[in-house]
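Batch job 17 of 40 flagged for manual review because the log was empty.
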Amino acid sequence: MTDPLHTVRFPGESPAYRIARDRLLKAEMELRRQTEATAALRRALPLGGVVPVDYAFDDEGDTPIDTDIERQTRLSDLFADGKDTLAIYSFMFGPAMSAPCPSCSSILDALDGEMPHLRQRVNVAVVAKSPIQRIRHFARDRGWRQLHLLSSAHNTYNSDYHGESADGRQMPALNIFLRRDGQVHHTWCSELMFVPPEPGQDPRHVDAIWPLWNLLDCLPEGRGADWRPSLTYDR
């Protein structure tokens, strides 16, 4: 028998359970190392291309509001003083869609709650192609209060940064930008969605910011293969 990895034990666990659990624990330790190694490679990326346009987004504001007054906010305006990194999530909610993407909505349900924490470190915005009033109407009904929601209805951000396919189909994407020496550079995109999936795998390109699957992966039944989140549930 190998040396135990730690001395913590749980009520009623069997020797067989502990052996299997320690085997899994070693895999979890390796995954943690690989996760950090991957993050280090991400941090070491050279600067990407300079953003070609200071995109003007339709905006109603980045805090809870009670007005539908519309204004425009440029990409450069999304950088607060002292914070030179910007994360933009492309929300699949185009003008031709009868309702937003349920999966994107699930991601944003969680992200809305994290915004007070994230604002301490990074600028965050959510961009969709629908008119801003439609986006904000959905957000209010959904209970989102913290997300900075923007419309790209009148610019090319979606097509330039792959939140939209060539035929106008809306795509989920997380893009990271960095302000450096007066210019805004693209630094990273969740490009796994463009890589042909391996057998039994879906792209999982934005799982890192999606708590739903991270919790389900801890369950004995796992995330499963035939369930996806919905906008509403019967119970």
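Reviewer: the log was empty due to a logging misconfiguration, but the result itself is present. Residues 15-43 form the longest helix (29 residues). Unflagging and moving on to job 18.
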